[in-house]
Structure of Putative tRNA (cytidine(34)-2'-O)-methyltransferase:
Amino acid sequence: MFNIVLVNPQIHTNTGSIGRMCVNSGCKLHIIKPLGFEIDDKHLRRAGLDYWAKLDPKIWDSLEQFLSINTKFKDRFFFATTKTNQLYFNAKFQKGDFIFFGSETSGLPLDLMRLNKENRITIPMTNDGRSLNLATSVGIVTYEAIRQNIDEFDFRDEICEF
């Protein structure tokens, strides 16, 4: 559905939760090193529960390596950041887009966001907080992108009836 790109994630439980969400939303997870944890960390797998085996994340050694392969898609790069006023729900997402999220401690590199600064997006927040949890932010933006492309989303077959 979409490509979720985590640039230098620092907290294993966030990455595990995002991996679980990617499996359930049909998204491809790209994880760009360096990381703040070991990729085989038992806590990472625990946060992703039994979903981690279904995830098949693409692990990149560096941002440069990722960009050397994927820069041709830069028109479809979206950058989640607090450094813009463009709200995420005003972006026009398409199947296959790359949605970037930075590390919990420093966000996305400014040089990266310059590749397509028109596609910087933010989640509205009050002045009382600095930022949202990374896994929460990824979920909010991803499901808005799915909402915009719902006709292409592959729902599960069984439906719960009450």
